[in-house]
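User: Show me an example of a complex going from sequences to structure tokens.

Assistant: Sure. Here are the input components:
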Amino acid sequence: MREVYHEELSSFRARLVELTQSAHDALVRATRAVLDTDRELAELVIADDQTLAAEHHELDQRAIGLLARQQPVARDLRLIVAGLRMSADLARMGTLARHVAELAAQRYPSEVVPGSLRPTITAMGAVAGRLAGGARDAMLSWAPDAAAELDRDDDELDHLQALLYRQLLSGAEGVDIATAMDVTLLGRYYERYADHAVSLAKRVSYVAGARVRSSGTGRLGVEP
Amino acid sequence: MREVYHEELSSFRARLVELTQSAHDALVRATRAVLDTDRELAELVIADDQTLAAEHHELDQRAIGLLARQQPVARDLRLIVAGLRMSADLARMGTLARHVAELAAQRYPSEVVPGSLRPTITAMGAVAGRLAGGARDAMLSWAPDAAAELDRDDDELDHLQALLYRQLLSGAEGVDIATAMDVTLLGRYYERYADHAVSLAKRVSYVAGARVRSSGTGRLGVEP
């Protein structure tokens, strides 16, 4: 019975890593679709998000099943509660990647990002992808300081978003009202995606920190 | 012991209702701040969001404490898991109201919304506020069909957002690039706020439906 339980927990953890990889891949593809005006790739990302939604639902069911059947305490409880929240973060990241892809699909064959803004969007896509990769790596190591390592990239993404908005405002070439609206939303999608990636890593730190501390204090709490 | 437990559950439920009321009030005030170019009111909403974050943290702690100490099953487990997610929805609604208020504060003494777009933003604020009020009422009745009643308002908000974007694109009076960027984000904040309000009501339906069914099947699951 306990062995099955530990297998279930371990598989739950592995599933979180896989879904983080999927959220990473979705954003990388969506960014390529929007920069390359690639409708086929955009539609692939959009279709994949449907599958992802079902997979998150399945992960949530597992978490609730574990809570109901095993009545976990201490660090296991923290892992499962954190996992439920991570599942929500991951689902949102997938949806934000889909929104990026939807812009590419809706504007096709026009391009969403004028040439003057391509370097900024390229950089935002790269940093956001790195954040998701960092969250995935954090889940592999379960290191208590996992979140700290993502801070620099998160700051960089905020700076890139501010730069993007300044570029739009300062009359960058090829920017009309329609472009400004699309690119404003695009910037917002990347920023939200990055926030969720940082949130993932924070939850890993919370579970990992708890693991270190749990034998000492047994304190229960949750990161904001 | 069981009596304390039921009191804790009942107080947990009551707290969800209060926090929904707070999220409602924050949006109503933020909308007034943005339409009346009222910096003082905007700053009140911004300051309140800090308090709200602490209150959500406290609610999460309660939920995790209940899971750890009481190891609830069936409908109580569903209520607490749903409550954790509702807390996340509510925190997000508060932050979105803050973002609306931040636009008012950052642009002051300029107005964010030009006269030509005021009716649309006024309507979006009213519908979003009604959705939050509907979610609160659903939590008071815990009726299984609570979510269905919010669908019409959610559709209306989507239509208003589409109208807003059409107005921006069709060269409504007073719309330059900067205005288009602000108002695009404003529209997005209302739309996200409304989605979270609908999500709250769906979780109520999930808990309420489970209560009706739980004696029969004992089935555990979770709405997407």
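The lines above are the inputs; the final block is the predicted structure for all two components together. The two ends of chain B are 33 Å apart (CA to CA).
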